[in-house]
Amino acid sequence: MIAHLAASFFCGLLFALGLGVSGMTQPAKVTAFLDFGGDWNPSLLLVMAGAIGVYSIGYRLVLKRPQPLFPGKFQIPRLRKVDRPLAIGSAVFGVGWGIAGFCPGPALASVASLQREPLFFVASMLAGMAVYEGVERWRRA
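The chain above was modelled as a monomer; its predicted structure follows.
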């Protein structure tokens, strides 16, 4: 259990450091990346390309293992269909990212700065998640 927690902490710390070094925690840099018609900053394109490259190699290497290090089995999503909730959620995510300049990972990493914007974003994100869960429970009842 301790090894699992230590590995999780290390992965989270490495992810947060990567977000900080790459500039993903700077909303102005993110919105400049999304501003194709204005003062476009393509630097985050390289960050994304690097992340996708590392992930695609790592994913293939990890799946060659008989099982993961900590959970008993791999948990790979089986659904491959793009449905309406996925499309709407993706659109809301993209619009929110464009307006705020934060997405969840960088916002959580930015909370350590104790600046108002990431704290407000994370509080709003948690409120939105709670509303979604409440609506889903209501729909299932």
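The chain is about 70% helix and 0% strand.
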